[in-house]
Amino acid sequence: MATIGYAQLPVPAGGDSPTVPADIAELAEAVDPHLLHLVDDQADRDNRLSDAPAQTLAIAANGAAWLKSSPTANTWITLWEPLPDWRPITLKSGFETGDVGLGIRRREGVRVSLKGRITRTDGALIDNPNAVNLGSVPADCMPTGLRTWVGTCSMGGNTTHAAGRLEVLAENTASAYGQPGDLLWWYQGEAGTSWVDISGDYWID
Question: What would the pLDDT profile of 126-169 be if each residue is shown by its tens digit?
Fold first, then answer.
């Protein structure tokens, strides 16, 4: 059996016997890994293509595109996906959403984005020499290691610092200030602050 093209597709040569059904089946099997595979969503992809060869390309109905990176495991690289909707963050007792709405979303598989401001329900300042537990992120947004970023805050009153440190506690974390997935605020400015803006990004892996 001769082969042609960069994909080395099998094509009967002049001296091959005329086994048309078998030849067509062999050609179809050779072409199949190079096709663009249309799926309903990620669940449909995993159900139908988990044993597909590496470099298999799948595209969902919403335009999400994945490339399989393992010849054996069901491991995919996300080439593109639409931004998911914002989801709520669970706040601890005594805190509420400020004048900027809260939200969290996981995108690109391993990247998490947050937005919004948090204030106290009683209108008092957020003031503690140690970490303040503001709330928690959804389970699927919990990082494998401690993640930190800079969060801005109000400069009203006697506050002297415009920012503090935000943390999300990792899986299997033991902390005096919270549980895995909790969102902590650290601030060293005088007199505390009336609100904390949690906008930022972190990586899950």
Answer: 999 899 999 999 999 999 999 999 999 998 877 778 899 999 99
User: The tokens of 149 are what?
Assistant: 């970023």
Report how far residue 204's alpha carbon sits from residue 7's, in angstroms, rounded to the nearest whole number.
37
Q: C-alpha angle with apex 107: 105 to 113, nearest 5 degrees?
A: 45
Q: How far is CA 31 from CA 5, 71, 195, in A?
A: 11, 17, 59
Residue pair 70/166 in contact by the 8 Å Cβ criterion: no
Q: Collapsing DSSP states into helix, strand and coil, what is residue 48?
A: helix
CB 56 within 8 A of CB 39: no
**pTM higher than 0.85:** no
